[in-house]
Amino acid sequence: MRRTKFQIVRPFVLGLVALAMAILPACSVNVQKEDNGQDKKVDISTPVGGIHVSKEAAVQDVGLAVYPGARLKQEGSDGSDKSANVNISGFGFGLKVVALEYESDDPPAKVVSFYQDQLKKYGNILVCRTSHLDVNADIKESDHGSHELTCESSGGSGTELKVGTKENQHIVAVQPQGKGSSFSLVYVRTHGKEADI
Q1: Does residue 85 lie in a domain region?
Q2: DSSP string covering 17-71, please?
Q3: Is residue 18 part of a domain?
Q4: ∠ at Cα 147 (144, 151), nearest 5°?
């Protein structure tokens, strides 16, 4: 079963939210709701840091243009969100993930070509074959302390384009969808004791 970026990020964020609420009674929690009652934005501020999660992600925060004619995907049939903006900060650590999911009537090869041109401004592009987007694998540090991005899988019908380092990366993941394409634009930035930033 294909895990989306939101299914990967959501448990991590929910765990941190629960931890913050349990051990930091001095925290401030602000939740904004959508008209249907679902959480739209959650801000938790504590004396040691903060967690800010929003469904409102802007493509400008990813640093890439939207493929011409592409449409932002709506909420999935399983209730999963198709955009997210997550910021976590604390003692010497920070994580920012901005992710949006789109669809296009054009085939994957055209979308991949467009984003290869877009990503060149950030450096050398790593091209991976994959069956799903796995941001979590790129966030964690390797055993050898390498900051270089790697391909986490070697097969699948999708193409993942990556640029940057594990601490500061742009990712475009393109999958076939019917006669067209589904694609994700992701920006990940971390800082902490092992990071260069």
Answers
A1: yes
A2: HHHHHHH-TT-EEEEEE-TTS-EEEEEEEETTEEEEEES---HHHHTSPPPTT-E
A3: yes
A4: 90
- Please state, as a whole number, how many other Cβ atoms lie within 10 Å of the Cβ of residue 6: 22
Domain count for the chain: 1
> Which residues in 59-92 are b (16+ Cβ under 10 Å) and which e?
beebebebbeebeebeeeeeeebbbbbbbbbeee
Kindly state the tokens that stand for 185: 């634009």
What is the chain's pLDDT, residue by residue, as a tens digit (197 residues)?
Answer: 455 544 555 555 555 555 555 544 555 555 555 565 555 556 566 556 677 777 778 889 999 999 999 999 876 555 556 778 787 877 777 888 889 999 999 999 999 999 999 999 999 999 998 876 655 545 554 445 667 888 877 777 899 999 999 889 999 999 999 999 999 999 999 876 443 33
In a domain, 194, yes or no: no
Question: Under the phi-then-psi rule, with left for phi > 0, alpha for psi from -120 to 50, and beta for the rest, what region is 173?
Answer: beta
Single-letter amino acid, residue 59: V
User: Residue 166 has what DSSP assignment?
Assistant: T
pTM of the full predicted structure? 0.71
Domain containing 56 equals 5-188
